[in-house]
Every structure is written in C-alpha cells, then in structure tokens.
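Hi there,

I know you've been waiting on this one. I reran it after we fixed the sequence typo, so this is the corrected version. Both the input and the resulting structure follow.
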Amino acid sequence: VELQRAVEAGFFFSVNPRMLETKRGRSYAQAIPLKRLLLETDEPAIPGAPFDALAVERKLTAMLSQLAALRRVSYDELEERIVATSADLLSFA
C-alpha cells in the first residue's frame, strides 16, 4: 500500500544489494515501475572509507543482473532504462 502511494506520488526508488537479499526487498524491486527504478550508488558506504571504482562497478553490474532476472527483462533493456531515468533526473538539477 505504501509503495503504491509513493509510486502514485511520483517518487523514484533506488535498489541496493541488501534489498535484493530479502523476499520483501525483491518483491518491492519487482513492483517498482521501470521508469522510476534506480540503482543505489552511495559510495563509500562510510564517510572517509577508501573508494574502489572497480568494486562499485562490479556491485552495480551484479545488481543489474539480479534485477533483470527478477523482472524478467534483458540486462541491456534494464540498463538502458535506468541510464535514461538517471539522465532525466540529472537534467532537472
């Protein structure tokens, strides 16, 4: 119910690896409209922690792969949609 209200209000949603580890999180990730779906990119997780761009890239690639399988869409299709959504949001800034 809360997710549906947030969707109707026009919110965007980011998915993170921990979310995809739980049944409820996977359910939410499947229910979010593609045009509102983003990947969480907050790094480093702890301020001042070392930043490893390759590790972040691997994490994002794994999340994208898992999300594509959950949503039964191709990896490339999902990647294109998330890139377009991100670009649209950045153009508003």
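Quick highlight: The chain has a mean pLDDT of 92.

Best,
R. S.
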